[in-house]
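Q: Start with the shorter request: fold the first protein.
A: Done. Sequence, then structure:
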Amino acid sequence: MIERYTTPQMKFLWSDQNRFQKWLDIETLACEAMARLGMIPQSVVSKIKQKAKFDVNRIAQIEEKTKHDVIAFLTNIAENVGEESKYIHFGMTSSDILDTSLSLLMRESGELILQDLEKLSKSLKNRAFEFKHTPMIGRTHGVHAEPITLGLKFALWYAEIQRDIERLKKAIETISVGKISGAVGTFSNLSPKVEEYVCKKLKLKPAPISSQIIQRDRHAEFMTALAIIASSIEKFATEIRSLQRTEILELEEGFSQGQKGSSAMPHKRNPITCERICGLARLVRTNAQASLENITLWHERDISHSSVERVIIPDSTIIVDYMLIQFNRIMENLLVYPENMTKNLNKTGGMIFSGRLLLELAKKTSTKEEAYQIVQDNAMKAWKEELNFKELIKNDRRIKKYLKEKEIEECFCLDYYLRNVDYIFKRVFGDKR
């Protein structure tokens, strides 16, 4: 399913063709650097550039025998380059190209995900302003609390996506390092200037210090940033799922012409994409946990992390890319039912206004506890006997002793609760629409 919807850019990024091309780019740049430093003959660089090429199928064929992908790659290159190939990978170790190329792939996949986040950010902003003043009930513990607007809900999501963007930018910066420092990171057969040259050409920073590998706390930061993004999207999707329930039906995932909801029940309109998103978020979080496990390795390095990373990093970037694209479509096509929001606001007969009533009453009673008790008595009676809370309040002698009818009416004013919406929007979005 994910493969079907993966963007061409993300799909190509993790392809064997692109991965091996990055390896070749790094090896070629290293040869350039070594030639400049007099470590290898200057004349071989142009020949290597001219002749160096690879074939994905041939590499796979060689790897069947060598059981080592980098050696298989270098063997295939040598088949095409000839004698000059002895200068390729000169003084380097496998992780010099594996880790440096992985940094490039993670940076590029992260940048694609940033584009997805920016698109979703715009959709959320547009819908926030569209429903800026559309009142609905706010819920805590799943129970009616006080009025909010749908625009505030979307503005809240927008603000969270901004944090996701900043986290991912920081994680991309953290992972954008290269390593060409040899078998245990000591530059024993290389000059640090080779690493500096290669990294500069690739727009990476040299890792200040490395063992045989770039340290995996960097990768874990990137993966946990993806896990937080996935969890944000799951949070939004879960809210839509909840508000799509038949008893509530304030929001609904778009249902296209010809779409079917159930093989047994033709009436069904299910939030299937939101549910799919929630399931996929679990995978991304699981992968982040695996990336944390990869931080601890034996001594200067073992390869227990390698097999894990070949799965979790491509999978997580592909999944998060998919989740963001799908959720953006959900937001663009989201069905909104303001009339149901109004109906639900009125469902408790005014109990949602108890907070203001409490405060107004507390100003005139001897203690706030006394005011609380009076209001709660009426609320519990309304709950148990399914009575209109506002009418109970208006007829309660204890309340009429302190509040005039006009003052009571003012306590049930919806606008009072929403009077700071513009202020909140300004804090979230600034002065620009």
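Q: Next, the second protein, separately.
A: Sequence, then structure:
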Amino acid sequence: MVQAGGAETPDSRERMSKAALVALYAFTLFAVGGYATFGLHPQLLSAVPQVAGFYAVAFTFFSRTQVWLAMGVLALILSLYAGRRWLPAFALLYVISLSSELLGTGVGLPFGEYHYTDALGTKWFGMVPILIPVSWFFMAVPSYALARFVLRGGRAAERVLLASFLLLSWDLSLDPAMSHATAYWLWGETGPYYGMPLLNLFGWYVTGVVLMGALAAVRADGWLERVPVRWMAAFYGANLLLPLGMSMAAGLWGAVAATVAALGGAAVLARWLGRGRVARPVAARAEAAA
């Protein structure tokens, strides 16, 4: 039901939120299934030439559509719950992440030497696909939302620290899936983690800190508190499912283990940060009672 004036009711927002998540999960599972079937078993394509042509198109279609669909789903939910208040944050994070990627593809910092293939579409200055900064945004937001929920009442620096770790956890399966199992981007130097230089992890965390700091600076907490945190957790999971599922299908179990371990580390970090915050009020009450 829609209220007078066109405003969505809580029930209608919840239904739309669930439907959007279902669509994203369904598309992601279909994409992972296609990769596991044809991407890893190209001999199946020779038996059906029509399918071979379809998969060649699908390789680019599904990767690009996945990004735009995820962004569309997040934009819909943010608009339903927070109106247009999130748009300045999107613009800011797009510029920050694009600048970081341009530096990375241009001079090899802060991620190491790499370049994008043409599989992800049109590029800024022929270097960075226009959809890459979009993906930074739609994973930075749920990472920050989860951190602020777990550390509710905590300091901004603590939220930034934890949120950046959650964002980095995603990359531990994303990079192996997209640059080792497939070739959406290629490294110009050899590294110990599925060909990825360890500098990339440092670059991801530093970029994450800047992005999360920007969200805190523009007071994203004000509009994020309106969005159900369970939905944000499910959205984070939907975006993690694609690279994690591809890594599992390709047998990259080290990447799977590293991702799970990082998420476990994030839980430990959240507990440690939260414990310090709880201890302060307890000490203050003890002093007051004395």
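Q: Describe the second briefly.
A: Confidence is low (pLDDT under 50) at residues 1-6, 278-290. Strands lie at 114-116, 123-124, 128-129, 185-187.
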